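Sanity check record (used in CI):
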Amino acid sequence: MDTTFRTLLSSSSDILFQVGKNVIYPNLGQFVEGQSSKREISYYQWVTFFLLIEALVIYLPRQIWHQLTHSQCLPFDFTNLRRREDWEDKKNFLVWHMKQTRGNHEYWLWQYLLTELLAIALLASFFILTDVFLGGDFYNYGIDWFSFMHNATNNTVSPMTARFPRLTVCKLQYHSRGGSINSYYPLCLLPINCFNDKIFLFLYFWYCVLFGLSLLRGLYMTVLVTCKPARRLRLKFSAKLVPEDTLERFINSHNLSDWFVLCNLAPTMDPVLIAELVTQLVYEVQGGEGSDSKPSRLGEQKKSLQSVNYI
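Expected output for Innexin:
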Protein backbone atom coordinates (compact mmCIF):
# COMPACT_ATOMS: atom_id res chain seq x y z
CA MET A 1 0.00 0.00 0.00
CA ASP A 2 2.80 2.42 0.92
CA THR A 3 4.72 1.54 -2.24
CA THR A 4 1.68 2.13 -4.45
CA PHE A 5 0.98 5.52 -2.78
CA ARG A 6 4.61 6.65 -3.23
CA THR A 7 4.52 5.61 -6.89
CA LEU A 8 1.31 7.57 -7.54
CA LEU A 9 2.69 10.60 -5.70
CA SER A 10 5.93 10.49 -7.68
CA SER A 11 4.05 10.24 -10.99
CA SER A 12 1.79 13.13 -10.02
CA SER A 13 4.80 15.25 -9.08
CA ASP A 14 6.46 14.56 -12.43
CA ILE A 15 3.37 15.72 -14.27
CA LEU A 16 2.74 18.64 -11.91
CA PHE A 17 6.15 20.15 -12.40
CA GLN A 18 6.10 19.65 -16.19
CA VAL A 19 2.88 21.43 -17.03
CA GLY A 20 3.10 22.68 -20.60
CA LYS A 21 5.49 19.89 -21.52
CA ASN A 22 3.86 16.60 -20.56
CA VAL A 23 0.34 18.03 -20.31
CA ILE A 24 -1.31 21.14 -21.72
CA TYR A 25 -1.53 24.21 -19.52
CA PRO A 26 -5.05 24.76 -18.08
CA ASN A 27 -7.28 26.97 -20.28
CA LEU A 28 -4.62 27.15 -23.01
CA GLY A 29 -5.02 24.98 -26.07
CA GLN A 30 -5.36 25.00 -29.81
CA PHE A 31 -7.75 27.59 -31.16
CA VAL A 32 -10.69 26.03 -33.02
CA GLU A 33 -12.73 28.37 -35.22
CA GLY A 34 -16.33 28.52 -34.02
CA GLN A 35 -15.64 26.57 -30.83
CA SER A 36 -13.08 28.72 -29.02
CA SER A 37 -12.92 32.40 -28.17
CA LYS A 38 -9.75 34.27 -28.96
CA ARG A 39 -8.72 37.68 -27.67
CA GLU A 40 -5.66 39.31 -29.15
CA ILE A 41 -3.64 41.68 -26.97
CA SER A 42 -2.07 44.28 -29.22
CA TYR A 43 -1.73 47.17 -26.76
CA TYR A 44 0.91 45.59 -24.55
CA GLN A 45 4.04 47.18 -26.00
CA TRP A 46 2.41 50.60 -26.51
CA VAL A 47 1.13 51.34 -23.00
CA THR A 48 4.08 53.57 -22.05
CA PHE A 49 3.83 55.66 -25.20
CA PHE A 50 0.05 55.96 -24.89
CA LEU A 51 0.26 57.24 -21.32
CA LEU A 52 3.07 59.66 -22.21
CA ILE A 53 1.15 61.15 -25.16
CA GLU A 54 -1.99 61.42 -23.05
CA ALA A 55 -0.14 63.25 -20.28
CA LEU A 56 1.30 65.76 -22.74
CA VAL A 57 -1.93 66.43 -24.64
CA ILE A 58 -4.12 66.74 -21.55
CA TYR A 59 -1.78 69.54 -20.41
CA LEU A 60 -2.45 71.46 -23.63
CA PRO A 61 -5.45 73.60 -22.47
CA ARG A 62 -3.55 74.92 -19.47
CA GLN A 63 -0.54 75.78 -21.62
CA ILE A 64 -2.74 77.55 -24.17
CA TRP A 65 -4.41 79.62 -21.47
CA HIS A 66 -1.04 80.39 -19.90
CA GLN A 67 0.23 81.78 -23.20
CA LEU A 68 -2.96 83.78 -23.78
CA THR A 69 -2.71 85.26 -20.29
CA HIS A 70 0.87 86.41 -20.87
CA SER A 71 -0.06 87.94 -24.20
CA GLN A 72 -3.09 89.80 -22.85
CA CYS A 73 -2.05 90.87 -19.34
CA LEU A 74 -0.23 94.11 -18.64
CA PRO A 75 3.56 93.84 -18.31
CA PHE A 76 3.52 94.65 -14.60
CA ASP A 77 4.63 92.72 -11.56
CA PHE A 78 2.35 93.53 -8.64
CA THR A 79 4.11 91.26 -6.15
CA ASN A 80 7.23 93.36 -5.44
CA LEU A 81 6.01 96.88 -4.78
CA ARG A 82 8.44 98.52 -2.35
CA ARG A 83 7.52 102.17 -2.75
CA ARG A 84 4.27 104.05 -2.90
CA GLU A 85 5.41 105.77 -6.11
CA ASP A 86 5.80 102.41 -7.84
CA TRP A 87 2.22 101.50 -7.12
CA GLU A 88 0.87 104.93 -8.06
CA ASP A 89 2.50 104.80 -11.50
CA LYS A 90 1.26 101.32 -12.23
CA LYS A 91 -2.18 102.00 -10.80
CA ASN A 92 -2.65 105.13 -12.91
CA PHE A 93 -1.67 103.30 -16.06
CA LEU A 94 -3.85 100.31 -15.15
CA VAL A 95 -6.86 102.54 -14.44
CA TRP A 96 -6.28 104.36 -17.72
CA HIS A 97 -5.97 101.05 -19.58
CA MET A 98 -9.12 99.60 -17.99
CA LYS A 99 -11.02 102.79 -18.77
CA GLN A 100 -9.87 102.86 -22.40
CA THR A 101 -10.65 99.18 -22.97
CA ARG A 102 -13.79 99.09 -20.85
CA GLY A 103 -16.21 96.53 -22.25
CA ASN A 104 -13.73 95.30 -24.87
CA HIS A 105 -12.37 92.18 -23.19
CA GLU A 106 -14.95 89.75 -24.58
CA TYR A 107 -12.34 88.13 -26.81
CA TRP A 108 -10.22 87.21 -23.80
CA LEU A 109 -13.26 85.91 -21.92
CA TRP A 110 -14.32 83.73 -24.83
CA GLN A 111 -10.80 82.38 -25.12
CA TYR A 112 -10.98 81.26 -21.51
CA LEU A 113 -14.37 79.61 -22.00
CA LEU A 114 -13.09 77.82 -25.11
CA THR A 115 -10.08 76.46 -23.21
CA GLU A 116 -12.47 75.17 -20.54
CA LEU A 117 -14.53 73.42 -23.23
CA LEU A 118 -11.34 72.09 -24.82
CA ALA A 119 -10.33 70.51 -21.51
CA ILE A 120 -13.71 68.76 -21.20
CA ALA A 121 -13.58 67.62 -24.83
CA LEU A 122 -10.07 66.20 -24.39
CA LEU A 123 -11.14 64.38 -21.24
CA ALA A 124 -14.08 62.73 -23.01
CA SER A 125 -11.91 61.95 -26.04
CA PHE A 126 -9.23 60.26 -23.96
CA PHE A 127 -11.83 58.10 -22.21
CA ILE A 128 -13.06 56.91 -25.61
CA LEU A 129 -9.53 56.49 -26.99
CA THR A 130 -8.48 54.48 -23.95
CA ASP A 131 -11.46 52.19 -24.48
CA VAL A 132 -10.45 51.72 -28.13
CA PHE A 133 -6.81 51.23 -27.13
CA LEU A 134 -7.75 48.38 -24.76
CA GLY A 135 -10.01 46.72 -27.30
CA GLY A 136 -13.31 47.92 -25.84
CA ASP A 137 -12.59 46.67 -22.31
CA PHE A 138 -12.20 50.04 -20.59
CA TYR A 139 -15.78 51.32 -20.74
CA ASN A 140 -17.07 49.08 -17.90
CA TYR A 141 -13.72 48.39 -16.25
CA GLY A 142 -14.36 50.28 -13.02
CA ILE A 143 -17.96 49.07 -12.75
CA ASP A 144 -16.93 45.44 -13.24
CA TRP A 145 -14.13 45.79 -10.70
CA PHE A 146 -16.48 47.34 -8.14
CA SER A 147 -19.03 44.55 -8.71
CA PHE A 148 -16.32 41.90 -8.43
CA MET A 149 -15.05 43.29 -5.12
CA HIS A 150 -18.54 43.12 -3.58
CA ASN A 151 -19.90 39.94 -5.21
CA ALA A 152 -16.82 37.81 -5.85
CA THR A 153 -17.08 34.01 -5.68
CA ASN A 154 -14.53 31.27 -6.05
CA ASN A 155 -15.37 30.76 -9.72
CA THR A 156 -15.48 34.45 -10.63
CA VAL A 157 -12.64 35.73 -12.79
CA SER A 158 -11.22 39.08 -11.72
CA PRO A 159 -11.90 41.78 -14.33
CA MET A 160 -8.32 42.98 -13.79
CA THR A 161 -6.91 39.57 -14.72
CA ALA A 162 -9.34 39.14 -17.61
CA ARG A 163 -8.35 42.46 -19.17
CA PHE A 164 -4.67 42.33 -18.26
CA PRO A 165 -3.59 38.66 -18.22
CA ARG A 166 -0.31 37.73 -16.62
CA LEU A 167 0.08 34.54 -18.67
CA THR A 168 -0.96 34.09 -22.28
CA VAL A 169 -0.02 32.37 -25.52
CA CYS A 170 2.22 34.12 -28.02
CA LYS A 171 1.96 33.38 -31.71
CA LEU A 172 5.36 33.20 -33.36
CA GLN A 173 5.61 32.54 -37.08
CA TYR A 174 8.69 31.35 -38.91
CA HIS A 175 9.58 30.05 -42.35
CA SER A 176 10.37 26.39 -42.65
CA ARG A 177 12.99 24.96 -44.94
CA GLY A 178 10.32 24.21 -47.50
CA GLY A 179 9.23 27.86 -47.61
CA SER A 180 5.95 27.44 -45.76
CA ILE A 181 5.02 29.55 -42.75
CA ASN A 182 4.76 27.63 -39.51
CA SER A 183 3.28 28.92 -36.28
CA TYR A 184 4.68 28.31 -32.82
CA TYR A 185 2.63 28.99 -29.68
CA PRO A 186 4.82 29.35 -26.58
CA LEU A 187 3.61 30.57 -23.20
CA CYS A 188 4.40 34.22 -22.51
CA LEU A 189 4.59 35.94 -19.15
CA LEU A 190 3.37 39.55 -19.06
CA PRO A 191 4.60 40.78 -15.65
CA ILE A 192 4.10 44.45 -16.49
CA ASN A 193 0.34 43.79 -16.51
CA CYS A 194 0.56 43.60 -12.72
CA PHE A 195 1.03 47.37 -12.91
CA ASN A 196 -1.04 48.09 -16.01
CA ASP A 197 -4.27 46.82 -14.47
CA LYS A 198 -3.88 49.17 -11.50
CA ILE A 199 -2.78 52.11 -13.65
CA PHE A 200 -5.83 51.89 -15.90
CA LEU A 201 -8.14 51.26 -12.96
CA PHE A 202 -6.85 54.47 -11.40
CA LEU A 203 -7.29 56.27 -14.73
CA TYR A 204 -10.89 55.05 -14.96
CA PHE A 205 -11.89 56.57 -11.63
CA TRP A 206 -9.67 59.62 -12.22
CA TYR A 207 -11.49 60.29 -15.50
CA CYS A 208 -14.83 60.01 -13.68
CA VAL A 209 -13.70 62.42 -10.95
CA LEU A 210 -12.32 64.94 -13.45
CA PHE A 211 -15.44 64.75 -15.58
CA GLY A 212 -17.65 65.34 -12.53
CA LEU A 213 -15.51 68.29 -11.43
CA SER A 214 -15.59 69.68 -14.98
CA LEU A 215 -19.39 69.56 -14.99
CA LEU A 216 -19.48 71.37 -11.65
CA ARG A 217 -17.01 73.91 -13.02
CA GLY A 218 -19.22 74.44 -16.06
CA LEU A 219 -22.26 74.95 -13.83
CA TYR A 220 -20.27 77.39 -11.69
CA MET A 221 -19.21 79.43 -14.74
CA THR A 222 -22.78 79.44 -16.04
CA VAL A 223 -24.00 80.92 -12.77
CA LEU A 224 -21.28 83.59 -12.86
CA VAL A 225 -22.06 84.54 -16.45
CA THR A 226 -25.81 84.83 -15.91
CA CYS A 227 -26.04 86.17 -12.36
CA LYS A 228 -24.68 89.56 -11.24
CA PRO A 229 -24.96 88.84 -7.47
CA ALA A 230 -22.79 85.75 -8.01
CA ARG A 231 -20.15 87.87 -9.77
CA ARG A 232 -20.22 90.34 -6.90
CA LEU A 233 -19.62 87.54 -4.37
CA ARG A 234 -16.79 86.14 -6.51
CA LEU A 235 -15.13 89.55 -6.69
CA LYS A 236 -15.65 90.01 -2.96
CA PHE A 237 -13.71 86.80 -2.40
CA SER A 238 -10.73 88.24 -4.33
CA ALA A 239 -11.06 91.80 -3.00
CA LYS A 240 -12.05 91.40 0.63
CA LEU A 241 -11.29 95.01 1.63
CA VAL A 242 -13.64 96.59 -0.90
CA PRO A 243 -16.98 97.71 0.62
CA GLU A 244 -20.19 96.14 -0.63
CA ASP A 245 -21.53 99.33 -2.19
CA THR A 246 -18.29 99.85 -4.15
CA LEU A 247 -18.46 96.30 -5.47
CA GLU A 248 -22.07 96.87 -6.43
CA ARG A 249 -21.13 100.03 -8.34
CA PHE A 250 -18.34 98.21 -10.15
CA ILE A 251 -20.60 95.32 -11.19
CA ASN A 252 -23.27 97.72 -12.44
CA SER A 253 -20.85 99.99 -14.31
CA HIS A 254 -18.69 97.29 -15.93
CA ASN A 255 -19.65 94.32 -18.03
CA LEU A 256 -18.80 90.64 -17.62
CA SER A 257 -15.46 90.82 -19.44
CA ASP A 258 -14.19 93.69 -17.24
CA TRP A 259 -15.12 91.71 -14.15
CA PHE A 260 -13.26 88.71 -15.55
CA VAL A 261 -10.08 90.73 -16.10
CA LEU A 262 -10.18 92.14 -12.58
CA CYS A 263 -10.73 88.68 -11.06
CA ASN A 264 -7.61 87.48 -12.88
CA LEU A 265 -5.57 90.45 -11.67
CA ALA A 266 -6.69 90.21 -8.05
CA PRO A 267 -4.72 87.06 -7.06
CA THR A 268 -1.45 88.77 -8.09
CA MET A 269 -2.04 91.87 -5.97
CA ASP A 270 -2.09 92.80 -2.31
CA PRO A 271 -5.65 93.12 -0.86
CA VAL A 272 -5.05 96.81 -0.09
CA LEU A 273 -3.90 97.48 -3.66
CA ILE A 274 -6.80 95.69 -5.31
CA ALA A 275 -9.22 97.56 -3.05
CA GLU A 276 -7.70 100.89 -4.06
CA LEU A 277 -7.76 99.88 -7.71
CA VAL A 278 -11.45 98.97 -7.64
CA THR A 279 -12.26 102.21 -5.84
CA GLN A 280 -10.34 104.26 -8.40
CA LEU A 281 -11.99 102.43 -11.30
CA VAL A 282 -15.46 103.11 -9.93
CA TYR A 283 -14.63 106.76 -9.33
CA GLU A 284 -13.14 107.23 -12.82
CA VAL A 285 -16.14 105.64 -14.50
CA GLN A 286 -18.62 107.64 -12.48
CA GLY A 287 -16.66 110.84 -13.07
CA GLY A 288 -16.41 110.10 -16.78
CA GLU A 289 -20.15 109.59 -17.00
CA GLY A 290 -20.86 113.07 -15.72
CA SER A 291 -21.26 112.66 -11.99
CA ASP A 292 -21.28 116.01 -10.18
CA SER A 293 -18.72 115.16 -7.60
CA LYS A 294 -16.74 112.33 -6.18
CA PRO A 295 -18.85 110.19 -3.82
CA SER A 296 -17.95 110.86 -0.23
CA ARG A 297 -17.78 107.16 0.67
CA LEU A 298 -15.28 106.49 -2.11
CA GLY A 299 -13.25 109.53 -1.13
CA GLU A 300 -13.06 108.40 2.48
CA GLN A 301 -12.06 104.89 1.44
CA LYS A 302 -9.33 106.10 -0.94
CA LYS A 303 -7.98 108.39 1.77
CA SER A 304 -7.78 105.51 4.22
CA LEU A 305 -6.09 103.28 1.65
CA GLN A 306 -3.50 105.91 0.79
CA SER A 307 -2.49 106.09 4.44
CA VAL A 308 -0.97 102.60 4.19
CA ASN A 309 2.79 102.74 4.64
CA TYR A 310 4.89 100.98 2.01
CA ILE A 311 8.38 99.72 2.77
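Residues 1-19, 289-311 have pLDDT under 50 and may be disordered. If this sentence no longer matches the regenerated C-alpha coordinates, the check is flagged for review.
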